[in-house]
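Hi! If you just cloned this repository, the fastest way to understand the data is to look at a raw example. We've pasted two of them here, unedited. The first protein comes first, obviously.
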Amino acid sequence: MINKRFFKTKDEVEVTFELDGKDVQSAVLMAEFHNWEPVPMKKVAKTKSFKYKTRLPKNAEFQFRYLVNDTVWVNDAEADQYVPNDFGADNCIVKTNEVCEA
C-alpha cells in the first residue's frame, strides 16, 4: 500500500510505503530514490505491517520493489504503474503528481 500526503506550500510529497507483515520476518525497500540501496522497513506491531516513510519531490516518478525475508521480491498491488526490469520481472512505479478530480 502507498499513502501520499501533499503539502500546499512545499514542493515535496510525504510517501508512506506499507507492506503486509504476514509471514514476513524482514522487509527492505529497494528504490531508485535511494540508488537501489536496501532501506530497512520498520515493523509496526499494531498493524502487523512493515512501513517506510520518506519525502519525495513533487511531479516525479520513481521505481521501487520490496525484498522480503532477504530472498523474495514483492511488488506493491497499489503501485501507480509497473515497468519491466532487466531481470524478467516488473518494478513498481510511484508517482508524486497531485491528481485533480473533476
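Ok, and the second one:
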Amino acid sequence: MEYGFCGRSLTITFVIFTYLGTWIGGGTIVGLVGNAYLDGASQYWIFGISCVAGVLFAMFFITRIRRLQVTGIADMLSLRFPEYKEFIRVPATLGLLIRNVTVVGMNFAAMSYMFTYFAGIDHNLATLLSLFLVVAYTVASGLWGVVVTDVLQGFIQTAGMLFLFFSALKNSGGLGSTLDFYERTDQLAAVSLIPSQASAPTILGFLFLFGLFFLMGDQSDWERIYSCKTDKTAFWGYLIPQSITLLLLLLPAFTGVLLRTLTNDVSDGYVLYWFVSQMLSPQMTIFVILVIISSVLSSADSFMVASGVMFSGDIFHRFINPEAGDRELIFWTRVVAILAGGIGYAFAINMLDIMQLWSVGIGIAAVILLPAYFSAWFSRRVNTQGALAGMGTGIVYCGGLVLTGASFSVGRVLLGFGLNVLATVVISLSTPPPAPEHVARTYYWAPHFHQAENPPDPSGQS
C-alpha cells in the first residue's frame, strides 16, 4: 500500500505537483518545441487536447472512480466484465502497458537527443544512458519517491519553460520582429493556434482520438486518484494542474515558433539544444539541461511505477500467485518497472520521432481499450464476450500494423477503433445479456453513484 499508493494519504499539494511533473515530461517539451518549429503553434493542440479532455474526465468520472474503490482501469473493467475469472484484465493491462512504455520511450528519446548533441555519442548509447539514469532511482522508493521528487522537478521544469520562452523571444527580436518574419515569408498562419487548411484534418483527427483517450485517463492518473486522502483532494488535485498545464503548454509551442525565426537548418529533434548551446551562456545551458533531465525523470518514473503496479496487481496477484504478500508484490512491481524502462528503450531506438512515439502509444491503447471502457460506464447490453471480442480484434489489428511496418496514422487508428466497436456490438447482441448486478457496478446512472457529486461536497471527507 505504501509503495504503490502512498498509504492512500496524498494531500493536494503533492497531488498537484506530481501531476504537473508527470504530464509535462522532457519528451513533451522537446517534441512540442520541435513540432511547432516545423509546423507552427497549432501543434499545441496535439498535447493541449489532453488537458481539455482531462477537465471533462474530472467533472464526469473522478468521484465515481473513487466510489468504485479501484486502483486502475483494468480493475474497473473487471467489475463490469467479470466472467472467465476476470480475464479482461489481461488485454486491458496489455493496452495500458504499451501506452506507458511509449511515454517512457519518448522521454528517453528526448534525453538521448541531448546526450547525442552535447556529448557527440551514438544515439543508441545515449538512449541506454537515459535508461540507466531513470531506472536507477525509480525502483528505489515507489510512488512516494515519485511524488516527493516530482514536487521539486515540477518547480524546476516550470521555471525552465518560462526561461526558454523569454530567452527565445529576446533572441528573436521580440514579438514585432517575429510577426514581421512570418509575414515576410508568407507563413503567418504558423503563429496561430488555429490549424492551417493543410494540417486541419490531421489536427482534428488527433483532437478526436486523443480527446476520447483522455476521457479514460492514464493508469498513473487512476493510481493517484485512488491514493488521495479525500474526494476533494482527488478532484481539485487533478483539475487544478490540468488548467495550469493547458497554459504551460503554450510556452514550448511558441518557443518553437520563435526558434524558426533564428534558423531553419536544424533538425526538429535538436533545435532546442542548438538554441541553448548557441544563444545562451554556459551557465544557462547547464540550467536547461537540468530542466530537461528533471522533466524526463518526473514523467518517465511515474509511468514506470504505474506499469509495475498494474502487473503486480492485475496479473501476478490475480492469476499467478493470489496468496502473494506485500513484499512479493513490491518485488514484482520493481521488476516490471525495470522491464517497462527496457521496453521503452526499445521503442526509443526504433522510433526516433518523439511525436510518433506519443501517437503510437495512444493509438494502440485507444484501439484496444476505449470501446470496452465506455461500454462499462454507459451500456447495459455489452457483455464480457463482446468486450473481449472487441479487445481481441483491436489487439490483432494493431499487431498486424506493427508486423507489416504500417504507420499508426489517425485514419488507421480510427479504423481499428471502429472494428473493435463492430466486434463488441455483434458478439454482445448474439450472446446473452450481462447480469444486471454486473451492469449496476459501473453503470454511470446506477443508484450508488447518486451521491458522487462533481465537484465534491466541500464538507465531505470520503
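That's it. A detail worth noticing about the second one: The two ends are 18 Å apart (CA to CA).
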